[in-house]
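Hi, here's the filled form for the chain we discussed.

Project: internal
Contact: R.S.
Residues: 293
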Amino acid sequence: MDEYQEPDAATRRMLMRNYFFVNRAEFPSYTAYMIKLAAFFFVTGLVIIIYFKSELPTLILGSISLGLGFWAFSKWITPYFAERRKYEARPSLEQMNSWLIKDIKEIIKPRAIEILSLDSKHLRPENFIIVPYPIFWNEPGVSSDAMLRHQTPDGKFLYSLWKVQVLALTKHYISLYSCNYDWFNNTFVSENTNEFFYDDIASIKNDIHVFEHKFLNDPEKTIGIGKIFQLSNISGEKMTVINDIPAMQPSAPVSVNLDKIISVLRIMLRHRRYGEIQEDDVPDEQTNEEQQT
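And the returned structure, exactly as it came back:
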């Protein structure tokens, strides 16, 4: 068996676009086929009848008519086979989801480290919690052309625009980077950061938030409720991470179980309040990488 070769970046972007834009090819209808076939025979017969007096011209014109008929037929049917080949060459849903997770980890995560001015030499994978969710509503600074979704065979959806939130848990503080990630064009806008020192955190909780956004393709339908993770510091400022919006039904396994994360943070804060935190007391959140793969 040949070893799988990952396509280069340009080819991969083309395949991703095909997944969204190339639909299953439909064979030309039987009615259209009969009309074209009847027209071909009619024209051919008419030419032969008109020039029947001369055998050679009849043969020549009949041949030309047949040639044109086959040419028209091929021009009519060829696009079907071309579209079918493009459809069959599309990546699988599993491959698309894999590429999405790969891009978030290999593009957005390094960007977060850069923007947050973190020293990656002292950070391990378990220091990071990556929480993405899809966007499919009017969003400031983002063209609606960048917001696409495709329904998958299981009734869920694959999206082209994502809000990616990266939590970095270090020894003394927790940092948050977020951006709107245009997956198709591999660009990100609306970058935001926040940072709380553990000693300033006053509360940690899971909560429910009601989103008033309307679906891009259905202005009468609201997005509804979403699950959020929220930190509050002693000044009253809040750090909010949106974890899951059930109505979006993303096909990619992007939800993160924040219950354990909250439990670990609470334990850390309790230790700090009593002065018992250890040097290596950083959340051992091994599920973060596993939950997103």
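Let me know if anything looks off before we file it.
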